[in-house]
Amino acid sequence: MQASFRIQDFLNFRRFINNIDIHSKIFDLSDDSDYEFVEAPQLNINHKLTLCELIQLRELVNGTHFAIELNSLLHQLLYNEAELV
Question: What is the top-level taxon of the source organism (predicted)?
């Protein structure tokens, strides 16, 4: 699956993913806790994910967030350095 987000939508989606309490779902023995419905209404995405898929998605989203922050920091530092030269 491939999805494109505006930055604010991505941050909201990341917050939603990170707020899912995976720890309690792991120890919950009910069948309902084995899956989580993840949706991004602005993109018409609605998927039923297993806990393993949810953990992988969380890692992917947080890695993407890190890459965005790193890129922003590098851009800011390079821009400031270019101004000084």
Answer: Bacteria
